[in-house]
Amino acid sequence: MSAHLRYVLQLADTNLVWSHRLSEWCGHGPVLEEDIALANMGLDTLGQARLLYAHASTLENKGRSEDDFAYFRAAPEYLNFTIAELANGDYAHTMVRNLFLAMYFKLLWKAQLASSDAVLGEIAAKAVKESTYHVRHATDWVVRFGDSTPEARLRVEAALAELWRFTTEFFSIIAENAPIYAAGIGVNLRELEAQWTEEIHAVLNEATLEVPATSAFRSTGKQGVHSEALSVLLAEMQSLARAHPGAKW
Amino acid sequence: MELPLWEVFVRSKQGLDHKHVGSLHAADSKQAIQMARDVYTRRQEGVSIWIVPSQAITASDPSDKDSLFDPMADKVYRHPTFYTIPPEIGHM
To answer: DSSP of A124-163, one letter per residue?
Structure first.
């Protein structure tokens, strides 16, 4: 697999897996308006994943479709960030996770506009508007949870404590990815990290929440080494397509 | 969770006026705008949203309907239907 293809699949898989977690809220949101908001965002991220899979298919040039990438690869072939695959918790957990991921993608897409890969630039132009809204939505809730009742604050603090350590993976450069940075396909991760950290700190500050301590833990999803949560997710997501290959609906 | 009720008005691309499209519950007006975006503009219905607290609206009493609106029923002279439209105007 070329470094270029690997990079596009990392972005596609993260969006697909996160879209699935968002879709699991459908029918379970705390109020109707939020239920619809999460389904909307799930569809936004699914749409981003589809564009990226179509691009991956072109790069790979083996005739694999979007569905082939989504439904006929096993967990070790998935290259999503680990944070996207973790099982859903309470609403604060989802809002914190969406804040981290959406902020990452908002800044990534902005920087990706100038990529030497013109298709990635085009996908970025569409996706940046969606991700900007996701950040706005998640920021609003995280600030409300942090700065409201003791119960809400406890929940958002617990989510921050659990999820913070998975964000290191956003900015670590692995050997397999090195060529795409040299080729100007990927964006400058050090700059991205500085922007992300500054923006997240601003949100947590407004929410009167403490920035969690950095840990030595490193998640490894983008290298294909996942938590058990991904296998469970894929088993459900892929079951229909695998039971009825080629089915149309 | 009992949140205040808000009335939502959306202006479409073609329209100059904001039209009432429904209501929703939200903690404050900022959140109501966001929720209205998700609930009422998913199918490209609008380019602008207004939010008004439902309690700010004073409504006419349905039981006053007879005295408020029925007197207009027999005053056809208030409708501009007695003018002859010159043929070059066509349909108005």
So the answer is: HHHHHHHHHHHHHHHHHHHHHHHTS-HHHHHHHHHHHHHH
